[in-house]
Amino acid sequence: MSTERDSETTFDEDSQPNDEVVPYSDDETEDELDDQGSTVEPEQNRVNREAEENREPFRKECTWQVKANDRKYHEQPHFMNTKFFCIKESKYATNAIKTYKYNAITFIPMNLFEQFKRAANLYFLILLILQAIPQISTLAWYTTLVPLLLVLGVTAIKDLVDDVARHKMDKEINNRTCEVIKDGRFKVAKWKDIQVGDVIRLKKNDFVPADILLLSSSEPNSLCYVETAELDGETNLKFKMSLEITDQYLQREDTLATFDGFIECEEPNNRLDKFTGTLFWRNTSFPLDADKILLRGCVIRNTDFCHGLVIFAGADTKIMKNSGKTRFKRTKIDYLMNYMVYTIFVVLMLLSAGLAIGHAYWEAQVGNYSWYLYDGEDDTPSYRGFLNFWGYIIVLNTMVPISLYVSVEVIRLGQSHFINWDLQMYYAEKDTPAKARTTTLNEQLGQIHYIFSDKTGTLTQNIMTFKKCCINGQIYGDHRDASQHNHNKIEQVDFSWNTYADGKLAFYDHYLIEQIQSGKEPEVRQFFFLLAVCHTVMVDRTDGQLNYQAASPDEGALVNAARNFGFAFLARTQNTITISELGTERTYNVLAILDFNSDRKRMSIIVRTPEGNIKLYCKGADTVIYERLHRMNPTKQETQDALDIFANETLRTLCLCYKEIEEKEFAEWNKKFMAASVASTNRDEALDKVYEEIEKDLILLGATAIEDKLQDGVPETISKLAKADIKIWVLTGDKKGNSLCREEVNLSYHYSLLHARMENQRNRGGVYAKFAPPVQEPFFPPGGNRALIITGSWLNEILLEKKTKRSKILKLKFPRTEEERRMRTQSKRRLEAKKEQRQKNFVDLACECSAVICCRVTPKQKAMVVDLVKRYKKAITLAIGDGANDVNMIKTAHIGVGISGQEGMQAVMSSDYSFAQFRYLQRLLLVHGRWSYIRMCKFLRYFFYKNFAFTLVHFWYSFFNGYSAQTAYEDWFITLYNVLYSSLPVLLMGLLDQDVSDKLSLRFPGLYIVGQRDLLFNYKRFFVSLLHGVLTSMILFFIPLGAYLQTVGQDGEAPSDYQSFAVTIASALVITVNFQIGLDTSYWTFVNAFSIFGSIALYFGIMFDIHSAGIHVLFPSTFQFTGTASNALRQPYIWLTIILTVAVCLLPVVAIRFLSMTIWPSESDKIQKHRKRLKAEEQWQRRQQVFRRGVSSRRSAYAFSHQRGYADLISSGRSIRKKRSPLDAIVADGTAEYRRTGDS
């Protein structure tokens, strides 16, 4: 009932959300939201070694207990869980990991079980069983067994190769070694033998084998540097730091061997960035957090050795908890193909039932009265008809093609390799090729309607550069000399006076340097001192050079800027930080670091100066900083104006501030801080509350502005995709000004439109309006381009998704009477109907806009927007991003693309496709996606056609054999038709065919639209293929039948026996279907031609072999068509019949294709027709560009154009680059000039 209460109080229509605030943190799980309440600290338990064994866990959430150097402790009965009946195992996992699925014993049964869970395989297994019943089968068992074994074998081999690779990987990892304390000494042990509670030693460049608590290291204050590329792809180093007590006492081997600490912590979970626990040792408790934990998969760097205590092992480690199953994605064509297979199955059942009824009637009218047909069985006609029903199910089973699914997988695998091998999507600068991480979605790349893109690192480079700043209300960063005069052209600032400058910062405001050196405004120096001291960057000295390791590019850019301006961060320990201030080294005591998180949006540091003063320095988002400023801040408005200017220039901003703290005030606050640090429950919330008490009455210093440049080729890519009718939505966590738009959009206007439509629909349909037929009313009058810019807070308001934390203190009464329960249920239904209608209206509104930009949205909101478009527009979506905050969106979309960028590899690891630059997206979609879609559609249409043409000959034959389920072909031909005689050409077409070249595909993006509209494969196309197959089967049967009636051969013998008839039909069929695929092929290569004529030659070669007398002698019951091929095909009459049959099948197709291309040509046909002229135009255009002079190739220094916003860029398709126009524009303007030049 709490859900109902919450849902009723979720939306307040009078509330006005803050546009600049991210509405809530995705780090909070639903359980946490449920458990929010008053944070009451339990009394600290006195811990001693003797009482540890009997002590109950002292808090609810920390139920995981670890005892150092005591394996027997973890084997106690109350730590054992029942696994199966009476079999028990410890809840503490071993450190051996198992990612493989099979072993030598289980491979065959388990793999077969998994394969027969597929309906098609199970269907053919049932057919095989039916064929073993002689009463109903007229077809040899091997006709189904051979194709089924081939399908099962190919799939099993693929699974086996994959699993062997997993076995090797597991073995390699489990057999890695490290040093573990055993019998009081460090001894080498394999990873798989490590257990919870072991103390281990790791050395430089070692992988961390389990989740361990850092006890000590070779570095001062037991710092330990780790690389987390295995976890999140981040290559920049992060540091961990042990407790002071363990750093002091646990450095030697003997002390580590006698260490008997006891840990109570959270249960194993998948949250990489959080850890809550407490170490009890020496009768004292010490708080543990994520900064003291080394996670499995990390690599020790720049640290000679370190010691740790294993807390989670094997499957309990956080990296293994995160390796859960990814949601299985299937393409639109997959679903359509399955429905068509079901349709074929229904047709098969109806045909079999009709033919069975026909047989029963024939038996009653003819069979019972024909003595020469008596088979010794006295069965009734109805029973014979029933048996024949199953007989026809077997004979016509090839209507449901067994090899279809395997062929589709082979084609997709090949297409994936083509993407991997595409050198035009290879980024040489970082040696990063494109990678198809899945083989099941290629053709869906040709059907995309909506692209949802992150901004930072996806559209931009995520390489941050310090560009401007505002200090004490004054903006710095323009082109100015030391006298504060502006110049268009001025030399770069010379930082040679600063020995710590790295020489990489390009800055042009000489006046700022003059202010720093003169010291006239102390706020200027304090500004850069704050940048040098308030951060979590780590420093490493190599050959006298300072190397910074920052957790984010923004922070690294700010610390590097302070270094170049004379305030260099030199070193840090657990309690101190050393800064060079204009050449003078000073060391400050660090009293507290109030770290950044997604809720706080700021970080602070409290230091004691050498003079003894205590100061707090803070940097963070302007929205949270301005709420905490002292009311007497004279430069508040000037700084806000500067922030607006920076945001309009698409620069990333942070506000800087400080305050001085009295000794008494700090002492009181520090007590609360220490208490919150060891809080039993809700430690993070308790710390945030304490942080709030000190972070107030701040003095504003100014703001920084960092540039994140646009990636190369982004405007051109957006223009091309827009011309392909693909809509691009930008979903970003940045503020509205930074989200690529200067033009303000009236959000309240859009909001009122949503309310107005809600009221209209409510008046029409009442409470249950959603059950009434929808009335589509456009939000806007036709014409004009509109952009929708919306923030996360407004998004929650509009979609009724605003979260409210539930308090345990507030107890609302539950419904006591039936009337109250009914009213509450109705209220919930009304709210659900309102919410669903509101969501649909938002999607309709957004889709009427040319561009949509969602700012300040959380990862969960990104996924929600994608899901809404999927749900209400039934459109194919693609999400592209480069960071961990994009993973949810990438997994939700039909196709997820990861950018191998600066923010790590988490997005890549969760994606379906990955590459290094956004500009490669146009080639992925317009070339590979379109080709894959066209190839797959051609393949499926042809596959259904050839199987209907093959199978329905049995149907026509049944009218002449008493509906007796007699086959029209030889058994071996039925067996090999789909395997050898018609498989290779269609596979090669599915792999190699292309209607136009890749260059023309990019030049004419409009070609992409056929995939969006499902024009090449749908139910209409399917029934056309079915009809084509039916007509072909009729021609294949009736022309030879007519030719064979009352016929005499050259030798005076009648060739019209059943076996010769079967050979004639089979030969005509193989030639027809192979020539048909030749007509369907647009891109001819030697391989295609060889496969077509090779398949025909292979058919005749195998047929003559299996019709030979020699093989009949060896297997007389299996090969019964002895001499048929040689006898029949030596008759010219038979060859003329085959040629006539093939011609009648193919000539109408040729005529229809010719008329279609002449009278109703598609865009692709037009381009193919003029491809030589288009190629000449392209070569001419390249020559023209070689001789262009005086055109600058420099793009605007900002992320997007100053004059127009990002929304206008999407809708208009104009490029910011002046040097090179979009290719379509060149073609449109240049063709006439080229013709005039040619005429002259």
UniProtKB/TrEMBL annotation:
Q: What cofactor does this one take?
A: Mg(2+)
Q: Tell me the keywords, alphabetical order.
A: ATP-binding, Cell membrane, Cell projection, Endoplasmic reticulum, Golgi apparatus, Lipid transport, Magnesium, Membrane, Metal-binding, Nucleotide-binding, Translocase, Transmembrane, Transmembrane helix, Transport
- GO CC annotation: apical plasma membrane; endoplasmic reticulum; stereocilium; trans-Golgi network
Which segments show compositional bias classed as Acidic residues?
25-35
Write out the ranges of the annotated region (Disordered). 1-54
Highest taxon listed in the record's lineage:
Eukaryota
* Annotated GO biological process: Golgi organization; phospholipid translocation
Q: What name does the UniProt record give this protein? A: Phospholipid-transporting ATPase
Supply the source organism for this entry: Colobus angolensis palliatus
